[in-house]
Amino acid sequence: MVLGRLRFILGGVVLALAGVAAILYFTFRSSAPAPASAAPPVSDTPAATWPPGALRAPGFRLTDQHGAPVSLAALRGRPVIITFIDPLCRDFCPLEAQHLNDVATAFAQGSKPAIVAVSVNVYGNAHSILRQDARKWALVPEWRWAIGTPGALGRVWKAYHVEVVARTKTVAGVKVHTIGHTEAAYVIDAKGYERALFLWPYSADGVVKTLRTLTP
Q1: Which residues are bridge partners to 114 per DSSP?
Q2: For residue 3, what is the enclosing H or E element?
Q3: Beta strands of the chain (E only): which ranges?
Q4: DSSP 52
Q5: Is 52 exposed, middle or buried (0-12, 13-18, 19+ CB in 10 A)?
Q6: CA-angle at 187, arms to 186 and 189, nearest 5°
Q7: Torsions phi, psi of 177, nearest 5?
Q8: Are 119 and 85 in contact (CB under 8 A)?
Q9: pLDDT per position as a tens digit, 116-128
Q10: Whether the Cβ atoms of residue 92 and residue 194 lie closer than 8 Å to each other
Q11: Are 100 and 133 in contact (CB under 8 A)?
Q12: Per residue in 150-169, pLDDT tens?
């Protein structure tokens, strides 16, 4: 019983630290681009990890790009990568999508992880935009968008410690929305527990190695 409580406390501490790391990364990510020489190196190592059964992943129920329900509970029984992507982004998000494509293709059919991309841009959730991304980014079949009302999406962002800031300005009479957000990807095991958190920039190999270590 005492050991169980210690694990729970430890999981909470690590989660809090991961949240702080995510917020700090978001702060620098939203600032002016740094010179290439100052860019953070790609990491194979998760920003945080949790032992089996220590931290249940927050549940949610949203809608995918086909209008069908998407939920973490419905994906129980297979590993899941939950990431947070702006469908209208044209810089880092497409690169992260390609990394996650590489993760999925590293596994044989029947053992591929599900990829759930929770939208961080409420202005970019039209199905036509999501279909365009699927074509341009050559998304793998395991990829599912998760969209919903601003309130529903906001609750998921908060549950996963993802910071999202939307700025709006008017250019030539047209409103333009700029989204800044934490670029995070969580690895969830087949039982629905968080096992690792990756912050961008991370490598596909690092995620693959983590997935291969999961307890069946």
Answers
A1: 80
A2: helix 2-30
A3: 48-49, 61-63, 69-71, 80-85, 114-119, 143-146, 164-171, 174-181, 184-188, 194-199
A4: T
A5: exposed
A6: 140
A7: -110, 130
A8: yes
A9: 999 999 999 999 9
A10: no
A11: no
A12: 999 999 999 999 999 988 88
Pairing mode, strands 143-146 and 114-119: parallel
Residue where the block lists tokens 């590489």? 102
> What does the block give as tokens for 195?
């096992």
Distances (CA, A) of 44 to 37, 115, 145, 155, 203: 19, 19, 25, 29, 5
Q: How far apart are the first and last CA of the chain?
A: 24
Domains of the chain (ranges, CATH numbers): 2-31+43-212 (3.40.30.10)
Query: Contact at 8 Å (CB) between 109 and 74?
Result: no
Residue 125: name the closest of 58, 200, 61, 63 by CA: 63
Please say whether the beta carbons of 152 and 164 come within 8 A. no
Question: What residue type is 197 in one-letter code?
Answer: L
Tokens of 83: 């990431």
Identify the band that residue 181 occupies on the pLDDT scale cut at 50, 70 and 90: very high
Token pair, residue 50, equals 């949790």
Structure tokens at 129: 């935009």
